[in-house]
């Protein structure tokens, strides 16, 4: 019987302190679950906001890239036009110089025909020597 009393005393009814401690543990667990749920919801909202921000930045980057490409294209076209105008001016200058040289040569041949004929013969002779070898 002594053993029955020892088992009975081991199974004593919980005291008020133990019951309060158990209730606090249960409340803490429930509050912890609520906190975790709130934190998970906050994290999901933050992730959603980050995704929206990244999408907005991607759109802005695409618009900036298109604007930059358009600006670069415009600058390149202006450069091409400028170079084309410079090339046309250089060709016009060469044509003018060629006309002046032709006019000088024509007047020189008319003023000194024998000298011009001798110079032409000498140039033809040198040309024949170079092409024969």
Overview in brief:
With 133 residues, the chain is mainly alpha-helical. The chain has helices at 2-10, 16-111, 113-132.
Structure description:
- The protein is mainly α and 133 residues long.
- It has one domain.
- Helix content is 94%, strand content 0%.
- The protein contains 3 helices and no strands.
- Helix 2 (16-111) packs across helix 3 (113-132).
- The longest helix has 96 residues, at 16-111.
- The termini are far apart.
- The mean pLDDT is 80.
Topology, number of strands: 0
Order of helices and strands: HHH
Q: Could you name the ranges where pLDDT drops below 50 across 5 or more consecutive residues? A: none
Distance between the termini: 141 Å
The helix fraction, in percent, is over 70%
| Tally of structural domains | 1
Shape: rod-shaped
- Major β-sheet profile: none
Structural class: mainly alpha
List the helices and strands and how they pair.
Layout: H1 2-10, H2 16-111, H3 113-132
Features of this protein?
mainly alpha; single chain
């Amino acid at each position: 019987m002594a053993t029955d009393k020892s088992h009975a005393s081991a199974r004593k009814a919980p005291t008020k302190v133990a019951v309060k401690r158990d209730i606090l543990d249960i409340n803490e667990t429930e509050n912890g679950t609520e906190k975790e749920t709130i934190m998970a919801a906050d994290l999901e909202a933050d992730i959603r906001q980050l995704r929206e921000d990244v999408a907005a930045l991607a759109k802005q980057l695409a618009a900036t890239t298109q604007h930059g490409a358009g600006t670069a294209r415009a600058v390149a076209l202006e450069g091409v036009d400028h170079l084309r105008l410079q090339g046309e001016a250089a060709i016009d200058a060469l044509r003018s110089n060629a006309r002046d040289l032709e006019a000088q040569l024509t007047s020189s041949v008319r003023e000194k025909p024998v000298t011009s004929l001798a110079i032409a013969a000498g140039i033809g002779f040198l040309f024949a020597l170079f092409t024969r070898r």
